[in-house]
UniProtKB/TrEMBL annotation:
<dbReference type="InterPro" id="IPR005625">
    <property type="entry name" value="PepSY-ass_TM"/>
</dbReference>
<protein>
    <submittedName>
        <fullName>PepSY domain-containing protein</fullName>
    </submittedName>
</protein>
<dbReference type="Pfam" id="PF03929">
    <property type="entry name" value="PepSY_TM"/>
</dbReference>
<feature type="transmembrane region" description="Helical">
    <location>
        <begin position="7"/>
        <end position="28"/>
    </location>
</feature>
<keyword id="KW-0472">Membrane</keyword>
<keyword id="KW-1133">Transmembrane helix</keyword>
<keyword id="KW-0812">Transmembrane</keyword>
Length: 175
């Protein structure tokens, strides 16, 4: 069991080092640019628009379908109605990681709201590395595998500790 523990510790240690390093750098970058942590902003919440009436939903969906049909390069599997902000907007896309392709549409006019491209600044690159988004699906699979390696590390560590404790080998333990 100690061998399993040792081999699970190697990838877990490498990835935990990357996660810890990018997490610290993300916080330092937020301090550098003067941002407060999420949820601690002093800004007033954006205004909330009223829900469109039942009779307005049909025309809104027709406008959304027209915009989606004009952009076949973006696969749409989910549509989100956003009531916050100065106007009711609709976001249509495949979902997924932040920054994935999506259409933002003004619900009243049916016009596409152009999204400015996200510049790959230091903070966004660090966030993509930290979350595993930089490698796409491979990064997500690696994130799952590193979680599994931490579970294996935890179980094998407890088993090794329990075996040593039962044998009375208390020397070398933390206490």
């Amino acid at each position: 069991m100690r061998k399993w523990h040792r081999w699970a510790a190697i990838p877990a240690g490498i990835f935990m080092f990357i996660i810890a390093l990018t997490g610290v750098l993300l916080h330092l970058d937020m301090i550098r640019v003067g941002h407060s942590p999420p949820g601690h902003e002093d800004q007033a919440p954006p205004p909330v628009q009223p829900m469109p009436a039942a009779g307005e939903i049909g025309p809104i969906m027709a406008r959304i379908n027209a915009v989606i049909a004009a952009h076949p390069e973006i696969p749409v599997t989910q549509v989100t109605l956003n009531l916050t902000g100065p106007a009711v907007t609709v976001e249509a896309g495949a979902g997924g990681a932040p920054g994935s392709p999506m259409l933002k549409i003004d619900a009243a006019s049916g016009k596409l709201i152009p999204q400015p491209p996200v510049e790959p600044d230091f903070h966004n690159v660090l966030q993509d590395i930290h979350a595993g988004y930089i490698a796409g699906w491979t990064g997500r699979i690696i994130s799952i595998l590193r979680g599994i390696s931490l579970i294996v590390l935890r179980i094998t560590g407890l088993e090794t500790w329990w075996t040593m404790r039962k044998r009375g080998k208390k020397k070398g333990l933390w206490w």
